[in-house]
Design brief:
Elements: H1 2-38, E1 42-48, E2 51-54, E3 60-61, E4 67-69, E5 73-77, E6 82-88, E7 91-95, E8 100-106, E9 109-123, E10 132-136, E11 140-144, E12 148-155, E13 158-165, E14 167-172, E15 181-185, E16 188-194, E17 201-207, H2 215-222, H3 225-235, H4 239-244, H5 246-263, E18 340-343, E19 347-348, H6 349-358, E20 361-364, E21 369-372, E22 375-378, E23 383-386, E24 389-392, E25 397-400, E26 403-406, E27 411-414, E28 419-421, E29 427-429, E30 434-437, E31 440-443, E32 448-451, E33 465-467, E34 470-473, E35 478-481, E36 485-488, E37 492-495, E38 498-501, E39 504-507, E40 510-512, E41 518-519
Parallel strand pairs: 9-10, 18-20, 19-21, 20-23, 21-24, 22-25, 23-26, 24-27, 25-30, 26-31, 27-32, 30-33, 31-34, 32-35, 33-36, 34-37, 35-38, 36-39, 37-40, 39-41
Antiparallel strand pairs: 1-4, 1-6, 2-3, 2-5, 5-8, 6-7, 7-9, 8-9, 9-12, 10-11, 11-14, 12-13, 13-16, 14-15, 16-17, 28-29
Helix pairs in contact: 2-5
Length: 521
């Protein structure tokens, strides 16, 4: 009896400890699972020479080996300088000298933007079905699954990818005539060039030669026996010759780069002015999968502190007080999309839709064109501010379920569609050229809409503009209706600005401001 009581008393004393252990392991398990699922543990593992790191706000950070990187960080190297980044234990990239790249991530989706120079990649095991890794330049996108190779950016209009083992899919950027794609096998190089006028893209495939492999890649092959075996088996390249001359190759490349820089008057980074890499007019963060929250400028320290600044966010508590106010969050950054983004280069409606999956508000800058030559949608809850131009052409159709504002200098043009006749002699549309508004369309002061598209008589839902939501032409805004504008049940058209051209066909909606130009069938 005494023994049983003693055991029970001991159990009661140990019970809180056991529960605490279970709780700790449970929390650690969940934290580990969340971190593993996120797949965003990017680290600057090693640097050589002069390496510059900037965060998403453009602030220069102190560089140290092993520091954690976040989406939107830009990494640049100087002469005879190199940087290694691990995206996880199976994905490694190396930045060549005189190169610049931006890393973007969200969860298990990764994109590396090579702005200039060269980048080596080594993905040691195939990606899972839930992962993606793309390497982008101004002329192409390379989809990586499990392979090694290197990307070279020659100038704004030309870049290439060489594969040393495995294979990749390369797609050219859309120049207006549509994109092209090609599969690049181990032992091949694909070069993608865009003509100066931007209307034509060429992709050429060549065999990868020993002589063409740069020194910064050769030295990686030299020290990795596993990579040597993969390259030998996959590409058939004479690995022994490559690694035997690796150091000499690297020295020769460095000397050549130094000579070129001197002869060019230290002209570097010929590519970052390509439209795809231009900075937004406002600091809205990464084009692709933003993760670091935006912070007001006032949160930056006015001067550099005397002690070493913290150069990265930390999710672990520190036993020492911070020596400076940090512009980065103290805990793991949120993976929620940033609120807004500004487009500074011409895009298609498909690209605009892609931005709207990441941002709640997209502003199209003045002078920037959006082409709608296929079916596209502005989702409910999303906002587009158009300070540039949007053209609905070819077989385009745009459905606005959210908010579309034509700002000062903004222009929407709906091309005149092609018409024919059916068997009974009635006019019919052969292409779309439609704007369907289910949300809010606002033409503000200085904004213009020109509708040249029309519909067959009595064809419900096929007018150039079909309004089921709210259209507002504010003071100073103008709407030129050379085609058909149909206002259906539930739709409202409020004109305080200028309306010219054809009448409005009002079929159960509400129209104010242009009563003399309204037809009620």
């Amino acid at each position: 009896m005494i023994c049983t009581k003693t055991r029970f008393t001991l159990f009661r004393k140990l019970l809180p400890v056991l529960l605490a252990v279970v709780l700790v392991f449970g929390l650690c398990g969940r934290a580990f699972a969340a971190d593993s699922a996120a797949g965003t543990d990017m680290r600057l593992t090693t640097t050589q020479g002069t390496v510059t790191l900037k965060n998403i706000n453009g602030k220069t950070l102190s560089v140290r080996d092993g520091m954690k990187l976040y989406s939107g960080y830009t990494l640049s190297t100087g002469a005879k300088s190199y940087a290694y980044v691990t995206l996880d234990s199976q994905k490694v990239i190396k930045l060549d000298a005189n190169s610049s790249t931006e890393i973007r991530a969200k969860g298990s989706k990764l994109e590396i933007m090579v702005k200039s120079g060269k980048l080596f990649f080594n993905v040691k095991s195939p990606l899972t079905s839930s992962e993606s890794m793309n390497i982008r330049t101004s002329t192409m996108v390379t989809g990586i699954r499990g392979t090694s190779g290197y990307i070279s950016v020659l100038d704004t209009n030309t870049s290439s990818v060489a594969i040393t083992d495995g294979q990749v899919q390369v797609e050219s950027t859309d120049t207006g005539a549509g994109s092209q794609s090609v599969t690049v096998q181990a032992g091949q190089t694909a070069s993608v060039a865009v003509q100066q006028n931007g209307t034509e893209t060429t992709i050429s495939l060549e065999n990868l030669t020993v002589e063409s492999i740069p020194g910064f890649v050769a030295v990686e092959l030299q020290k990795d026996e596993d990579l040597q075996q993969r390259v030998q088996e996959s590409s058939g390249l004479p690995v022994d010759q490559i690694i035997e001359s690796a150091d000499q190759r690297l020295s020769a490349d460095e000397q050549q780069a130094e000579d070129e820089m001197e002869s060019a008057g230290f002209l570097t980074d010929r590519v970052t002015q390509a439209p795809i890499f231009r900075e937004p007019e406002t600091n809205t963060g990464s084009d692709y999968y933003p993760e670091v929250p935006q912070w007001p400028e006032s949160s930056e320290p006015s001067s550099e502190p005397s002690s070493e600044p913290s150069s990265e966010p930390s999710s672990e508590p520190s036993s020492e007080p911070s020596s400076e106010p940090s512009s980065e969050p103290s805990s793991e950054p949120s993976s929620e999309p940033s609120d807004s983004y500004t487009v500074t280069t011409d895009i298609t409606i498909t690209q605009l839709e892609s931005y709207l999956t990441q941002y709640n508000k997209v502003t199209v800058s003045a002078g920037v064109a959006v082409t709608v030559n296929t079916t596209g949608t502005i989702p409910a809850g999303k906002e587009v501010i158009l300070n540039g131009s949007l053209s609905i052409t070819s077989n385009g159709k745009l459905t606005n379920n959210g908010s579309l504002t034509v700002g000062n200098g903004g222009l929407i043009t709906i091309e005149q569609n092609t018409a024919g006749t059916d068997g009974g002699g009635s006019t019919v549309n052969q292409t779309n050229h439609l704007l369907i508004n289910n949300g809010t369309l606002t033409v503000s002061s200085g904004g213009t809409v020109v509708n040249n598209s029309y519909a067959p008589y009595g064809a419900n839902g096929s007018c150039g503009v079909n309004n089921y939501g709210s259209v507002k032409i504010e003071v100073g805004g103008s709407f030129t209706n050379s085609g058909d504008f149909c206002n259906y049940t539930g739709g409202t058209l409020d004109v305080s600005g200028t309306w010219s051209g054809s009448s409005v066909t009002n079929q159960g909606g509400t129209v104010s401001g242009i009563n003399t130009l309204v037809e009620n069938p």
